[in-house]
User: Fold Dienelactone hydrolase family protein from Angustibacter luteus.
Amino acid sequence: MSATSLTHEVLRQALGPVPTPASLEPEVHEEVQCDGYVRRRVSYDVPSGRASAFVCVPDGLAAPAPLVFCHHQHAGEFDLGKSEVCGLRGDPDQAYAAELAQRGFVTIAPDAIGFEDRNWADGANVGWFELSSRLVLGRTLLADCLQEVSLAIDCASTLAEVDATSVGFIGHSYGGRIALWAPAWDARIRASVSNCGCIPYRDSFARDAGFQAELVVPGFAARYDVEDVLALASQCEVLVIAAADDVWSRGARGLGPRLHDLGATHVRVHVVPGDHEFRAPQRELAYEFLDVQLGRTPAGGPA
Assistant:
């Protein structure tokens, strides 16, 4: 348990300022009919440039559906982002934006800063440049990433097919890390699933783990850790799925007692056998959790 209680104000101060966004100016570039949903390729303005995302809308909606932000993994593959979680390229086990749309959710899957359409270096790692160019100005890359989560939700919430009162989040690895932070940043997120991304700062000092550029917040780990961030988001039910042999799930078994000490009863930690994967049984566990927490109504009729 931290010596000093983390508050939303302290968190925002630690993350540093973000630029004031202008109008989103959304544009739909393409619509493709898929198996059970329509996939739209969209773009919209964010302070660091033009965001690029897929929005997947289920067929036959009888009423506005819950929205789920689907954050892609890292895996050192900077040419992949939204396309992987929509099942167009990469690992089929990462196609949760497509699978959730088939299940009846509207999903939005943007490229994170430095990935796929947002990579300006022919697929090279630009994360450390994106971090350092902010740090010298007293800003962090994490704050901009979290602001872009909010802007994506803003964009999708304007759609007639979306129930903007029912917003969720899901991610694996890098996406699983952001799934811990996003509900503390944006109170609209009511349910969040983190898969294989819960390693705390205290367990990241090992050389086989280390620190991802997007999660570097100067001074934060001297007082706080991920359980403090999770405890802030009391409006959000959180499911943390961790794998027993996964480096990025390291420390998962210790989260429960620490969360209990902080009174964070809205977080549940589920440890499964295996390595750094998002296998079908874990995805089904995640989807059922989102079904319940977001009150999903199946496409075409009442639940």
The chain is about 30% helix and 25% strand. The beta strands are 27-33, 37-46, 49-58, 65-71, 106-110, 162-172, 189-195, 237-243, 267-272. The chain has a mean pLDDT of 95. Residues 244 and 273 are 5 Å apart (CA to CA).
